[in-house]
Design a protein that fits this description.
Distance between the termini: 35 Å
Structural class: alpha+beta
Strand order of the largest sheet: 1-2-3-4-5
Number of strands: 11
Strand content: 25-35%
CATH class: Alpha Beta
Oligomer: single chain
CATH topology: Metallo-beta-lactamase, Chain A
Number of domains: 1
Length: about 200
């Protein structure tokens, strides 16, 4: 498990995904995706927000020690959001622990939802406006070389709709991009997103 404070009240942690051994290779470099996936913790004004949470195997005690302490310190309800249906990960276990549900609306204060259209797979992006941070499922990812790339869904049916969504995402004042796969982009995220879209011919 690796934990990084992205900004005050905004953290990203990683955990090894149990299905990572069977992941396909990245067509860009011929290597499998990194085994570790990214998860997000955000202290909203009205909730402790967890996005795509995965409890790190082998570090459960330390993980819950810190998370329980934060929830108790803030005295706020826990809200759990998913960027994609297949990112449910540990969401149900955490929802049971903190007496909440998964993907309940309205969203926590400061969090905005942007659908990633073009495929019927339910991908969403969340913009955490107080920190200018964008959290995505797999439309953007960072490969092992550190290159940010655009990864349209294999189920893409409408490139025009995807292009519209990408225009919405790149129009946001994004400074930080928190991806599920690969290292987060902490600086100049919007510029790198635009470059990734242009490199893909979008």
């Amino acid at each position: 498990m690796e934990t990084v404070e992205v900004a005050p009240g905004l953290w990203r942690w990683t955990a090894r995904h149990p299905a990572s051994a069977s992941w396909p290779v990245d067509a860009r470099d011929g290597r499998p995706w990194p085994e570790e996936v990214g998860c997000v913790y955000f202290e909203a004004a009205d909730a402790v927000c967890l996005i795509d949470p995965l409890i790190p195997a082998g570090d459960e005690d330390v993980f819950f020690q810190h998370l329980d302490a934060d929830v108790e310190r803030l005295g706020l309800p826990v809200r759990i959001l998913l960027t994609a249906p297949w990112h449910r990960r540990s969401a149900d276990e955490l929802a049971a622990r903190y007496g909440t549900s998964v993907d309940v609306r309205p969203l926590p204060q400061g969090v905005e939802e942007i659908p990633v259209r073009g495929a019927d797979d339910g991908q969403l992006a969340y913009f955490i406006r107080p920190h200018h941070a964008l959290v995505v499922a797999e439309i953007f990812a960072v490969d092992r070389s550190g290159t940010l790339g655009l990864y349209p869904s294999p189920a893409l049916a409408s490139p025009d709709e995807l292009e519209t969504s990408l225009a919405e995402l790149t129009a946001l004042p994004v400074e930080r991009l928190l991806v599920s796969h690969g290292e987060p982009v902490i600086e100049n995220a919007r510029e790198r997103m635009v470059d990734a879209v242009e490199s893909a011919g979008g």
